[in-house]
Structure formats: structure tokens, C-alpha cells
Write a structure and sequence with these properties.
This protein has 253 residues and is α/β, with parallel strands linked by helices. Helix content is 45%, strand content 13%. The two termini are 28 Å apart.
Length: 253
């Protein structure tokens, strides 16, 4: 049976309760959701050294979360973090310098087309610790955009170590723009729509994987519609044809 990882997560309702208790003792007290937010606010408001949250909690895969931040953060600090959303040139320059220093001078940096304020390391196979280093320096989220070789290397570890299944269950993967789509043989982790397979694959590769498709329930009649959906960012005929060809090859294996 697959071993489920345990994560230390403070639920939002518990955070709210802590804040309510603190305010009942002193209405002026500030209780931050994250230590990095508190550290930035202290530097900005007390030491007059404007500092952004080095782990940008205001940025989520679906957009910004400044409305939530406003519930506990000071306006002066909010303004500093909001300014960081527009600092594209500065962020790219800092990221370039950091990558050079940690030995990845051969890797280029892209801004994600799908996730706000997220940098992608092109052909990247950076470790989690290396990605965190870049993120702390830039104040933007950072992920890999691996090539096929890098994806297979990381996915092999995820399938064997985290999912306890053979990598041969991965029937294929297709890159579309700045995203990867995976195709697997069956329901390989016992969850609906291979939810854990998706979670572990994203964690291992540190890249954007919108969906995992089960080849056992895909038919030839579905290929054209699926390819059009996967190419929805561009809808270029040649891109749709390429994806159709690659899906067909995967199904015919």
C-alpha cells in the first residue's frame, strides 16, 4: 500500500482563532500567517527598510491573495509586496545572478505564461533547495521547466519511491508550451483521477503539470478533441496536429 506523506499545515480556521484570541488580549497586536511576512513587515515598518515577503504568500497558482493579506498585514507592507508584482526586469536580473552563483549559468529564465509572478528555469532540474534560494532572493515563485530527459529522471524517482510502482506505468508525456501533460496506464495509485500521481509528479519535477490522462479510458475518437483542448493557449493548427500525433503514438504503444 502506498505510504501517504504527512505534512505540517496550519489550517485557516485555526489561524483565525489564534488571531481572535490575540486581539481579545490586545486589539492592536499583529498576528501574521507566516514568519516571513512578519519578518518583512518588521524590516519595513520598524527599521524603515522596505522588504518584500521572501516566500511570496500573496501569490497563488490561481492569482493574487492580497485580500487575505489585508486581514492581518499593515498597508505599508502590503504596498511593498504589491510593488514586487511589477518588478519584472529587476527580478529577472536577480534570478540570473543567483543561478550563475549556484552553478546554473547554462540555464535561461522565463516568466510563466500561466502562473502570476512565477519564474521558470528553462531545461531546469534544480533541487527544491536551489529553487527556494532563487525565490528568497527574487520574491517570486520559481519552478523548473525541464526538458524530456529531466522530466523522465525526476518522474522515475517519484514513481518508484513515492508511488511504489514501475515507471513503465508512465506511457508518455507531452510538452505544450510551458506545461507538461502525463499519460499513465490505468488508475495506478488507487485514487480518483490519479490525484496522488499528479501530486507526487508535480512535487518531484517542480514544474507545471495540469493533468494526468488514463490511457485505458482514452479512445481514438477522443484524440482530436483532447489535442485541441491541450493546445487551447495557441490553437495553432500545426500545434494541434503535433499533439494529435503524439497522443496517437502513446495510445498505440
Amino acid at each position: 500500500m502506498m505510504e501517504i506523506q504527512k505534512l505540517k499545515i496550519l489550517q485557516p480556521n485555526l489561524r483565525r482563532k489564534v488571531r481572535e484570541i490575540a486581539h481579545s488580549i490586545d486589539p492592536e497586536i499583529l498576528v501574521y500567517d507566516h514568519s516571513s511576512c512578519a519578518t518583512a513587515s518588521i524590516a519595513t515598518t520598524i527599521y524603515n527598510n522596505p522588504s518584500f515577503d521572501t516566500l511570496p504568500h500573496w501569490s497563488t497558482p490561481d492569482g493574487y491573495d492580497f485580500d487575505n493579506c489585508a486581514g492581518f498585514c499593515l498597508p505599508k507592507q502590503l504596498a511593498v509586496c504589491k510593488q514586487r508584482t511589477e518588478a519584472k526586469s529587476e527580478v529577472l536580473e536577480i534570478a540570473r545572478n543567483v543561478l550563475d552563483k549556484i552553478g546554473h549559468n547554462d540555464k535561461s529564465i522565463l516568466i510563466s505564461e500561466h502562473q502570476p509572478n512565477t519564474l521558470l528555469v528553462n531545461n531546469g532540474i534544480l533541487t527544491f533547495q536551489e529553487l527556494i534560494t532563487v525565490m528568497r532572493e527574487t520574491g517570486w515563485r520559481v519552478d523548473n521547466l525541464p526538458n524530456r530527459e529531466g522530466m523522465m529522471y525526476r518522474l522515475n524517482g517519484a514513481f518508484e519511491t513515492d508511488l511504489h510502482t514501475d515507471i513503465n506505468k508512465l506511457k508518455g508525456l507531452i510538452k505544450v508550451g510551458q506545461q507538461w501533460y502525463l499519460f499513465v496506464d490505468g488508475n495506478i495509485d488507487g485514487t480518483y483521477n490519479n490525484v496522488n500521481t499528479l501530486r507526487f509528479s508535480r512535487s518531484a519535477t517542480r514544474t507545471r503539470i495540469p493533468h494526468i490522462y488514463n490511457t485505458q479510458i482514452l479512445s481514438g475518437e477522443m484524440v482530436s478533441e483532447l489535442a485541441t483542448f491541450m493546445a487551447s493557449e495557441s490553437l495553432r493548427p500545426e500545434e494541434i496536429q503535433r499533439i494529435e500525433k503524439e497522443i496517437t503514438e502513446i495510445l498505440n504503444k
